[in-house]
Every structure is written in structure tokens, then in C-alpha cells.
Amino acid sequence: MRDHAAAAVPVHDHFTTAPPRRLRRTLAGAAVAALAVTGVVAAGMPASANPGTGGYTNAFTASVGGTVTDVAVDSYTAQAFAARSGGVDIVDENSGARTATVPLPGATSPVLDADATRAYVWALDAANNKLYRIDERTNSATPVSIAGDLRDVAVDHTTGKVFVTTGSTGTVVPVDEVTLAVGTPIPVSGTLTRIGVDSAAGVLYVVDSAGLKVSVVAEAAGTVSGSVTVTANMTAITVDSAHHKAYLGSAALNNTVAVIDGSALTGSSVDVSTPGYSGGVTSLGIDPSTQTVIGRNGGQIFRIDTTTGSSRFWNPMGSSVTAGDIAVDVYTNTALYAAANTVLAQWEPISILGSISGVVPAGAPYSQVLNGYADPGSPVFSISGGALPTGLALNGDTISGTATTPGTYTFNVTATNAGYGDSVTQTYSLHVVTVDRTAGADRFATSVEVSKASYPAALSSTATLYIANGVSFPDALSGGPAATQGSGPLLLTAPGYLPTSVSDEIKRLKPQHVVVVGGPAVVSEDVVTALKQLSPDVQRVYGGDRFGTSQAVIQHAFTSAPLVYVTTGLNFPDSLSAGGAAGSLHAPLLLVNGGATSVDTATANLLSSMHTTKIVVIGGSAVMSPSLVADFARFGTVTHLAGVDRFDSSQQIVETAFGHSSRVLLANGLNFPDALGASAWSGSTASPLFITLGGCVPQRTLDDIYFLGATEVTLVGGTSVLNADAAALTSCGGWSVIAPTYPALAPAAAKTGGSAGSGLVYDHPVAPSLPVNPRTHH
Question: Signal sequence: where (predicted)?
Fold first, then answer.
């Protein structure tokens, strides 16, 4: 790891005890635009923190498959990466267990860097002139060949460029992270070895081992801005993007860290000598959230306060460190070292455990407990920058109050262990959202209120209104996307009569076309007769059973369907959110017998006639047989979304279908009526529909609301189905996946602290980390 680490950390919700929940370990690449929503690539607030004299804690020692030549970390997922000849081993930070190996055939002493914002780890096999992109989603490696005398690699997560030094060739070669296109080499001159990136300034620091200088390169221009002379061959490097400085070490410089100011193009040094310890500085890394450079010389691990330039002894484990890079998880504040054939991890003396970011309902009481760790002692929290939402305040370790004004509020939280001078700062955002409710006196009236919200004016002459049985779910499920396609609402009716509220709404809408979904046994002729008094064109669409009706509805509403959503017709939960997602993408929702082992003839004929090439199948093996899912591949590309429960499936559906929405809909997932009408509303307005419990909202749904950038949350249904706790967006519990803003992207003032301390080892709590953004990290 050359210059930085990006991370996410779990947040235990403050409301209720978490139910058992799947911890999502799989990843996906994330576009910069999507990550900007989370703040990962935004400049954000400047961090202000500093190292003191607190103790250290050994987190874990993980054995890997050979001598470790470099380490990197993706703290979004709490995964460490250990390079060795022949491959890269992956270590779970939470358990210290080696979980996987990515083979790099023939690689000798590879070196690493990581871009956690895109879920990529980069491994340079200099001996074979190969740069590998390791995709964390699949743990697969893709090589790209680069000519020259390759030496080192560094990645700029802001620009999506990887840079490789070419030794005696004298150039820096850029590579595009996504396309793997090799760019025009940047001429620097000299024998170029180590490299670091200041991602905030767009600056490269390149070591010339022969000329004994460090060149400062403007990344965008591809030109050398200047160079600073050094007195030895620098073999260790890390970059402080907050203050635009590079820290460098050499085995030939006893007790000295060289510092290059990339803005002023000047050099200085830090004395890291400690009585009883001596030697050259051969390993370096940085934690920007504590504004700490961590390094090794001889038997000591030292820490440098980047705001003051002062150095302190930290612990006596330096002799264990065997490679030049120290990787740092910037949210759990864990330093990771290569130590022979192991990865050694140590917790720093202070950490804020978890994210405070999330959604806050305007006008409702809110409370968030801050969790932290200090060694020794307890952290004291303060708001050190920005502002909390109006109406909220920090008292002790709790942010509480009633937020009054919708909007996004970004602020710094600093945790300080004042007796020992240690502090850490993270930047968070709270989205204060408006919460409203759309509901009627019963299920039929609620569908009317949804219709009014969706279509405040009369329908156009070409629009089609859909009517479905509101007492039984099957026929109405496919009706939602069909109604969206027809530019009209889906209204629910009693099977034997047309409720007055529904009749009045149809009079208001003045539809020229009405489709009744279901046969006479489902929606009686009396209902059809009543409808014919309200519209000149009333058609009944149905099949021999629920599956046949679904097919008939699709054939009536769609002339073609390149994309089709598929759910089981034997139950309703998976279909509720799917209807909205399908409608928003102008796709139908097809019901099938999830217990079948293959695609039946009628379904096959429908997919062929619709020219379907993409199929999203929803539901786990309990509701959708694996052989049936596999058989759908005959008709195109299959995406299979299978949650551990109905709520997890709902979240996966939304995460794969929506990128941004100002409104989010919530409906009770334990019953179907309210969500049926809401599915058409969801589709017509591209507003994600989540199903939820009646008394709380799943934590991952709250995270998704944050990531979607929603400003309004609408509950569909009355207080008997979604109570006041649900309206207050009370979490059902679990771990949030929202990461704080990447720390220290702008200079910050130093803070003072005490100097007394101890080297005692204390227990340090740690919990599972999850991907930062489930919409993009599947």
C-alpha cells in the first residue's frame, strides 16, 4: 500500500436489538458518481486529530501461504491482502482467518495497492512485466502487460488511474482502472523506484534511486513540477493527502524520516530516535483519520503527528515487520504489517466504532449513541466541524433531539482520550427527510389515495386504468407493471362489488380504457357491469389460472419485453418490490410456479414472443427451484436475486434497479393490499418500493434510503399496518453499511494533548464490516 487506505466500518443501530442477518461479503465495483453520494470521493470536512501516547493492542496474526512481500487493505469489507510469490492471500480482519487465495501464476515478490472505492486490488509482478487487477467481487485476477523495468505501483482512487514506475526506463506508466488501457508514459528521468499518490492534489511522488531525488509530478498534466534532493535511496514511502506531503524512509538513514512538501517543493526531516532503538526507517504507512504516520525502524514502531511533525515511540514490535508498506484500515484504525509469512495487525489507541451517518425523520424524536474505543481510558466526543441538523445536539455520547429542517448536514465528530493526547476525527452526514403517509380507511380506499397521489389530474385518452381483486393477491401482482405501462393506476376492488371509494375515483380519472384483471371467479360480472357505466372501453384479461392470467396481462400490455422480472405466483412477498422495479424499467412481472423444475411451454412461448434477452429471477431456493432458475438461461442473461428473507429480497431488488430517487415508498411486507397499488405508483414515478415490518424499518433499507439520496419517505397504509415507530424510521436493528467520508482530504490544524501514557495492551472491540454501498457493492 503506497499512500492511503479507504474503509467502512459497521454501525450497531441505536434503536432495537438486531435480528439474525446475512452479512454481505460479496462486492461490486462502484462508479465515482455513486460513491460521491456516500462522500467517499468528496473533499469533505478537514479532519483534525493527532496521535498521543496511548497503548497498543495486537488485533490478530494471520498465517498465509508464503513470505509476505506487501500488504493492502479494503476496510469497506474488513479484508486484508497479503502478496507472496505465486498469489495474493485474503484475510478477514474480524477473525484473522485466511479466507481465499487469488493465484498469480509465476509471480515473484508482487507488490500491492488497493482502491476500495472500486473493489479492486492491484498486484504488480515486476519480474514478468504484469500488472494484475484483482476484482474483489469474484477474487479473480486480470493481467495487463507493461513494458520496461517495472518497480512499484500506486493507485489514485479519485481519478481511477494506476501508476507503475519503470526503473531505469525512467517513466511512470498510467493504467485506466476500468478499461485496463495503458496510457502514454510520463517521462520523469532517473531510475524510478517507489511511488506514492496524493489523491487530493492529483500529485505523484516518484523516487529516483540513482539520482537521489524525489520528483513531484502533476498527474493531470503528466509533467514534473519539480524535484527535491534526498541524501539516500528511499525505499519506504507514504503520502499525507491532508497536508500534501510525502514521508520517506531509507535503511541508510538512521532514525530519520524525510519529508517532501509537494506544494512548496521543499524537504525536511523528522527525528524518530528513541532510547534503546536505532536503525534505518524501512516501513511506513499513514492513518489520515488520526493524522498519524506509522513507521518502523529497528525494533520500534513509531508514530508521527502529521500536524506537528513530532514523533513518539509506540510499541516494540518493529523487529517483526519484514516489508516496506504498512496498510491502515482508516475506520477501525488498524495497522497491518507484513511479518515473515504472517500478517500482523495492531489497533491504534483510539477509534470511533461505527458510522453516525444515516437518515433522520423530520419532526420525530431521534437518538443516536456514539461508540468509541480508547486505550486506556474512555473517549470523549465533540462536534469539531460542520453542524448537526437543526434541533439535534450532542450530549455526552448521544446525539438526540427532534430535527426540524429537511436537508443534508455534514459534520465532524472527534473522539479524544485527553489524558494521553490521542484523538481521531471522522466526517459524517445525516439526511433529514420528510416522512408522510398515504392511506385510506381500508385497502380499497388506500389504493384510491395512491391513485390520487400518482395521477392528480384526469387520465389521458390513451391511458389505461387497471382493476384487480384486492382480497386475493395473484392477479394483481402482474397488474402493477402493466398499469405503469398503460400510464394509469392500479385500483383494487372487492370481488363481488365495486366499492364506492373506487367508483368515485374512476369518475374523477375519467379513463377511456379499463382492464379488469382476472376471470369471473375473481372479479364478478357485477363489478364489470358497474365499470361499464364509468368507461366506454372495459376489457377483462385473464387465463386459466394465476400463471395464465399473468401471461395474458403481459401480452395485453406489452408488445415486446427485452427485460422480464420473474417471481413465484404461489406467494406475494417477492413480487411487491419487483412490481415497482419492473414498472420503472418498462418491464413486465411474470408469475411462475416456483416449484417447477423447468420452464413450461406457455412461459417459453411468451418469452420467445416478447423477444426477451434479460431475465431477473427473484427468490431463494425455498420459493424458486434452482433447476428452474437455471433453465431460464435458455432465453437470455439471468440475474438471480435471492435474499435470506422477503425484506432482504426487497432490498436487493431496489439496489439493482434504482440509482437515485427523491422519494421512497414503504409498505407492509407481511400483507399485500397496500403494496399492490403502490407497485404501480413506484413504477410510474421511479420511486423505489421497499417492504418493511409494521413497527420498524430494516437497517439496510434505511441505508438504501440514504444512498438513494431520498428527501421524502412515504408510508403506504394506515397506522394499523405501519405504526408510529415505522413512521419514525425506527430501525429493526443490525449493522449499517454507511462509511464516513474519506478522512483528511484538506489541511487541518493540530490539536494539543497530554503526554503521559502507557504501553499496556487492552481488549479492543471489533465487529463485522460490510460494503459501503449495497446499491453498488453486490
Answer: none
User: Distance between CA atoms of 123 and 114, rounded to whole angstroms?
Assistant: 9
pLDDT in tens, 17-53: 222 212 222 222 222 223 233 332 222 333 345 666 6
* CA atoms of 139 and 216, how far apart (whole Å): 34
Res. 576: pLDDT tops 90: no
Looking at the fold, whether 163 and 267 belong to one and the same domain comes out as yes
- The region of weakest confidence among 94-108, 132-146, 191-205, 731-745 is 731-745
- Can you tell me the mean pLDDT for 130-139? 95
Domain boundary residue among 333, 351, 369? Answer: 351
Residue 603's DSSP bridge partners are none
Domain CATH for 171: 2.130.10.10
pLDDT in tens, 716-727: 999 999 999 999
Structural contact between residues 527 and 493, judged by C-beta atoms closer than 8 angstroms: yes
Quick: pLDDT tens for 649-675. 999 999 999 989 999 999 998 888 888
Residues 111 and 251 in one domain: yes
Residue 320 is assigned to a structural domain of this protein: yes
Same domain, 105 and 252: yes
DSSP designation for 18: P
**Where does a domain end: 539, 556, 573?**
556
What angle in degrees, to the nearest 10, is found between the helix axes of 646-657 and 573-584?
A: 10
Is residue 476 within a helix (H) or strand (E), and if so which, with residue range? helix 474-485
Provide the H-helix boundaries in 516-663: 525-532, 546-557, 573-584, 601-609, 626-631, 646-657
Query: Which of 335, 419, 384 minimizes the C-alpha distance to 61?
Result: 335
Sheet of strand 365-369, all strands in order from the earlier edge strand to the far edge: 365-369, 398-402, 392-395
pLDDT confidence of residue 354: 77
Q: Whole domain around residue 156: which residue ranges?
A: 26-47+56-351
Q: Are the C-beta atoms of residues 261 and 327 closer than 8 Å to each other?
A: no
Exposed, middle or buried: residue 709 (CB in 10 Å: 0-12, 13-18, 19+)?
middle
The model scores a pTM over 0.70: yes
Residue 321 lies in a domain: yes
Cα–Cα distance, 502 to 492 (Å, whole number): 8
234 and 107 assigned to the same domain? yes
CB proximity list for 1: less than 8 A, separation 6 or greater = 70, 71, 72, 73, 112, 113, 114, 285, 325, 326, 327, 328
